[in-house]
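ok here's NHL repeat containing protein-like protein, seq below lol
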Amino acid sequence: MLLYNFVQIGCIQISPCAKWDREGITLLGTGIAGNSSKELNEPVGISFYEPTNSLYIADYKNARIQMILLNESSGNAVTVVTHLFFPRHIYVDNDNDQPTIYVTLSAQNRVEKWISRASKGLQIGNECQKCVGIALDKDKNVYICDTTREQILKWSPYTNETTIRAGVTDHDGKDPNLLSTPQGIYVTKTGDDIYIADTGNSRIQRWSKDAVQGMTVAGSSAGIAGNDSASLRNPIGVFVDETTNVIYIADTYNNQIKRWLPNAIHGDVIAGIGGQGVGPDELNVPTDLTFDNNGNLLVSDFKNNRIQLFRLIDNKLCSASDRNIIHRMILSLLTLWIIVKFM
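and the structure came out like this:
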C-alpha cells in the first residue's frame, strides 16, 4: 500500500480523499450562549483525548474547561477546570495515565499546566503577550503562540528555559522570516516541524528545525487574504497528518474547514460548505478542529456557541487520477526539501 493512500489519525486511517457529511451534528451547545452543562459561551480551542475518546473544550467566556465523552449522546459536558481567566487554546497530553491539560490564558499573559484532579494550575515558561495557540512534542516541550510579540516560543520542562522557535520578536510582516498575529500551532511529534496559523497574514507557515524562515504551505505567501480555493482569511486552527503532510485548517473568517494536500496551490472545503450561518452545513467563525477515534471531524464553532461533529462518510482509497496527483505533489515536495537541505 502506498503511503499517501491513507492518513493515520487516532484509531482509524483516513484517506487524503476522504469525505465527511456536509451537515454537522451539534455535539455540545444550543446555539445560544449559556453556562449550563449543555451550553457554551464562545468556545475557542478544542483537544481530543484518545484513550477515553473524549473532547476537551476551552469555554472562553464561561472561564472553564469542559469535557464530553464522545461515546455518550447525553449532550452534557463535565467541568474539569474552572475559575480560569478567559482560556483560549488547550492541549491535552495523552501520553500519561491521566490527562494533563495545558491552557493559554491570554488575558493573563501566561500558560498553565493542570494535572488531573488538581485544585490549582502551575504556570510554565515565561510571560507571553496574549498567548493563544499551544502544542507539545513527544519530549513534552511546550510551544506557544506569543501572539502580540509576533513569535513562537518553546519551553523546555528539563531546563525550564524559554527560547524563540519562530518569528522575530516585536516585528510583524509578510516576509518569510516574520509572522503577524500567530494564533494557532501544530507541532510534529519529533518537534522537527511546526505549522503556524499565521493569522494576520492569512497563511499557514511551516518552520523546520533550525530554520531562520518559514515556508508557506497553505494560503498566499504574500500574506493576502481571500475567499477563493487558493486563499485563506485569518485562519486560527491547524491540524496536520504526519504521514502525508495533509493539512486541515480552520479558515476562520471564511467560515470553513479546508483540506490542503502537500505542495498544493489550493485547498478544498470539507466543512462549512453552506457558508456563514447557524444551519447544520454552516459555521460562524470556526476557531479550531480535530478528529476523533472514528475519523469524525470536530469543529469549535465559536460564534454559534457550539461544537459540531461532521461524520466521516466515505473513506475509500483515492482514485488512480487522485493518487497520481498526490504522488506528483509528494515527489515535488521531496525534491524541494532535498534542494533546501543540500544547497
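fwiw The mean pLDDT is 91. kinda neat tbh
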